[in-house]
Amino acid sequence: MTIDSTTFRYVVGHFMTGVTVITANDGGMRHGVTASSVASLSVEPPTMIACVNKASRTGQAIYRSGYYAINILNKDQGPLAERFASSADDKFSGLDVAEGFSGAPLLPDVLAQIECQVVEAVEGGTHRVLIGAVLAATAGAGDPLGYYRGGFGEFHLHRDDAVYEEIRRQIIQRNLRPGAIVDIPALAKEFDVGAGVVRYALARLATDTLITRDPRRGYMVAPIDAATCAEAFDARCTIELGVVARIAGRPTKPQLEQLDARLAELMPLIRAGRFVDVRRYVEANNAYHEQVVSLAGSESLLGAYRRLSLKGLMTLALSGVTDTSDDMIGDHIALTDALKRGDEAAARTALISHNARVKTRTEEILRSAGGRI
After folding, report:
1. How many CB atoms lie within 10 A of CB 322?
2. Is the Cβ–Cβ distance between 61 and 11 less than 8 Å?
3. Does domain 5-152 have CATH number 1.10.3720.10?
4. CATH 1.10.10.10 fits 158-221, yes or no
5. Does domain 226-369 sit in CATH 1.20.120.530?
6. Which of 109, 128, 58 is nearest to 87 (CA)?
7. Are 244 and 276 in contact (CB under 8 A)?
8. Angstrom distance (rounded) from CA 132 to CA 124
9. Which of 2, 90, 98, 301 is the most exposed place for a label (fewest CB within 10 A)?
10. Other Cβ atoms closer than 10 A to 1
11. What is d(CA 282, CA 31) in angstroms, rounded to the nearest whole number?
């Protein structure tokens, strides 16, 4: 028995998938194509599968270069999916494209990005199955774009977000104690959801460093201590010092305007040595430092910063804290002014001073809590 291609496409179109754009760089030429036949193959080692038409320019570019990037689109990027599904000559026109480790183009504002090196290629019909060892991976917040019966749409994940937020609240408020093993069936029953929804929330919380996973014991609430925090803050400072050296006083006017905007959001959140709103401060502080790292124009550096998960660490460390120092804001003002003047030495001084201040204050907070939280 055989089935014709029209019927086959109609039937498999009922299988809803996410939407990605697979990109590659071949000899300085950028290529990209919309694809939904993408999946994770292995966690240890991290490995992906992507299926690309052998005859397509992108498929040939990947075959020659040996590298590709998977750009997972968010729910508002249907037009971008349509663009890369077309045969346009320059699909990247007008896009603020970054360059990955391998040189593969990384698209802006996507939900997640995964860079791979081809370790095996298997041909099947018109397509080539590319098995890729994962070199780097980053993800942001948002909902994915979906593909169903020939059209683009969005998944509804409000329930997932609600479970994530509630577990996060319980961790921050110490209802789930540091070191405690997370009871997945109990949480699923409490929230009236499947265990998979809880596991997904825990995986998200793990990227925030609020949860750890022990192979034998399962998910656990992550305790933090002064050494853990100091290491993360030192890593951030090292990245930002590298950014300052790399840009050498050459940030663009739009970049500086964005940095000013992030600073304006941060400044009102400390008044007279007290936090106005700790959670908003943590969010605004993270956005400011992301903008500093973004000045380098390197998605790899930005990904390295995000993997530090400082927002999660600061959320835990500052939970219930009201007292701080106005100098925290002063450090950010000094750094912004130095970057605007192109004064590399002053920018380095501001970064080092701020790092020392943050580590000292965090150590004081943790000491008052018994050394770890």
Report:
1. 10
2. no
3. no
4. yes
5. yes
6. 58
7. no
8. 16
9. 2
10. 2
11. 38
| pLDDT at residue 173, as a whole number | 63
Is there a contact between 236 and 244 (Cβ–Cβ < 8 Å)? no
153 has pLDDT over 90: no
Sequence-separated (6 or more) residues with CB below 8 Å from residue 222: 178, 209, 210, 211, 212
Q: What are the boundaries of each domain within the chain?
A: 5-152, 158-221, 226-369
Model-level pTM?
0.50
d(CA 116, CA 100): 10
Share of the chain above pLDDT 70, in %: 92
Task: Name the one residue in this structure whose structure tokens are 């040189």.
Answer: 103
